[in-house]
TrEMBL record:
PANTHER family: ANTIBIOTIC RESISTANCE PROTEIN MCBG, PENTAPEPTIDE REPEAT-CONTAINING PROTEIN
Organism superkingdom: Bacteria
Lineage: Bacteria, Bacillati, Bacillota, Bacilli, Lactobacillales
Cited Pfam families: Pentapeptide_4
UniProt-recorded name of the protein: Pentapeptide repeat-containing protein
Native source species: Companilactobacillus farciminis
Length: 209
C-alpha cells in the first residue's frame, strides 16, 4: 500500500474556498484545518498533495473529483457525493462518512482507517489496493464492484449488501456481522472464520446445524 506523497513542511495553510481562485477548480500543496464547507457543488474538482484536518463537508456534491495524494484526518464527509471520481493514494483517517456516495469511482491505493462508513454507497467501483481497517461499514451498499488487493481488517460489516461482486481472495475472517446479504454465486474464494462459515451454510445452502 503506497502512502500519500505529502511533505507537511511544504504545505501552504489556506482554505478550501481557495479552489475558486482557479478557473479549473484546482488545489495543490495545501494544509486546510478547522473549516466548515457547506452546500458546495463543484464538478470535477482537482486536488493534490493536500492535508485536510478537522474539516466538515456538509451537503456537498463533488462529482468527478480527481484526488491524488490526499489525507483526510478527523474530517466529516457525511452525505457528500463523490460519484464517478478518481482517487489515487488517498487516506481517510478517523473520518465520519455516513451515507457518503462514491458510486462509479476508481480507487487506487486507498485507506480507510478507523472510519465510520455506515450507509455509504460503494457501488460500481474499480478497486486496486484498498484497505478498510478498524472501520464500520454497517448497511453499506457494495455492489457491482471489481476488486483487486482489497483488505477488510477488523471491520463491522453488519447488514452490508454485496451483490454481483466477485469475492475471491477477500478475507472477512476477523470482521464482524450478525447478518449480511451476499450474492451466493460470487462466494467462491471468500475466506471466513468458522462462525461465519456456519452462517453462510445455514442461510445460503440450507444446512441445518
Amino acid at each position: 500500500m503506497n502512502q500519500p506523497k505529502i511533505d507537511e513542511d511544504y504545505l501552504t495553510k489556506g482554505s478550501f474556498f481557495d479552489i475558486y481562485n482557479e478557473e479549473d477548480y484546482f488545489l495543490s500543496n495545501y494544509l486546510i484545518k478547522d473549516e466548515l464547507v457547506e452546500k458546495q457543488m463543484i464538478s470535477h474538482p482537482m486536488i493534490e498533495q493536500t492535508l485536510f484536518q478537522h474539516v466538515t463537508f456538509s451537503e456537498c456534491d463533488f462529482d468527478k473529483s480527481d484526488l491524488t495524494d490526499i489525507i483526510f484526518k478527523n474530517c466529516d464527509l457525511s452525505n457528500c457525493h463523490f460519484t464517478d471520481s478518481s482517487l489515487f493514494r488517498v487516506k481517510f483517517q478517523n473520518c465520519k462518512m455516513l451515507g457518503t456516495d462514491f458510486n462509479g469511482s476508481y480507487f487506487n491505493n486507498i485507506q480507510f482507517d478507523n472510519c465510520i462508513l455506515d450507509l455509504a454507497n460503494l457501488n460500481q467501483l474499480n478497486c486496486k489496493g484498498v484497505n478498510f481497517t478498524n472501520s464500520s461499514l454497517k448497511d453499506v451498499s457494495f455492489n457491482d464492484n471489481k476488486l483487486s488487493k482489497v483488505i477488510f481488517d477488523n471491520c463491522d460489516l453488519n447488514e452490508m449488501i454485496v451483490m454481483n461482486t466477485k469475492l475471491k481472495g477477500i478475507d472477512w475472517s476477523n470482521c464482524r456481522f450478525e447478518t449480511i446479504e451476499v450474492d451466493q454465486n460470487y462466494l467462491r474464494g471468500l475466506k471466513l472464520n468458522r462462525e461465519q462459515a456456519a452462517f453462510f451454510a445455514q442461510n445460503f445452502l440450507g444446512v441445518k446445524l
